[in-house]
């Protein structure tokens, strides 16, 4: 499925190459016109069991060609997190514009029971983001804010 973004005539083109082990699976797509993420499905040949407290890199079965100035973020699926306690260990995972290898999803089992990943299961989502042009400028002092250096739970 492909949806137009209202008010936008411009569409970013991202190259995708499906690998042989992706054959027979649905193309990467968004499920609704309001979805920001494209569903990633497991392109594993066999079932993968993720034991509690364990991490597995699940093959997504495709490679991307992302233009410079953009990235793809691999994000968890809320339903998997809520119902099965399955999440991404490096959330969000980043696919850089110069990476040309297979996208893989690093799933972690936060639950207390084994979780089985089956071929074609929706396991994550892919969101494309524009990156700002940034120039880091070294300064002796930084501008002050009300928060200052408070972090990690400083507001209670």
Give the helix/strand layout:
Blueprint: E1 15-18, E2 38-41, E3 48-50, E4 55-59, E5 62-65, E6 70-75, H1 78-84, E7 86-88, E8 93-95, E9 104-109, E10 115-117, E11 122-130
Antiparallel strand pairs: 1-5, 2-11, 3-10, 4-9, 6-8, 6-11, 7-9
- Percentage of residues in DSSP E strands: 25-35%
As a whole number of angstroms, the C-alpha radius of gyration is 19 Å
What is the helix/strand order? EEEEEEHEEEEE
CATH architecture: Distorted Sandwich
Strand order of the largest sheet: 2-11-6-8
> In percent, how helical is the residue content?
under 10%
Major sheet characteristics = 4 strands, antiparallel
Number of folding domains?
Answer: 1
Rounded mean pLDDT is 91
Pick out the low-confidence regions: none
Give the CATH class.
Answer: Mainly Beta
Structural class per helix/strand content? mainly beta
> With helices defined by DSSP (H or I, 4 residues minimum), what is the helix count?
1
Number of strands: 11
Distance between the termini: 44 Å
The CATH homology group name: Deoxyuridine triphosphatase (dUTPase)
Shape: globular
Q: Enter the CATH topology name.
A: Deoxyuridine 5'-Triphosphate Nucleotidohydrolase, Chain A
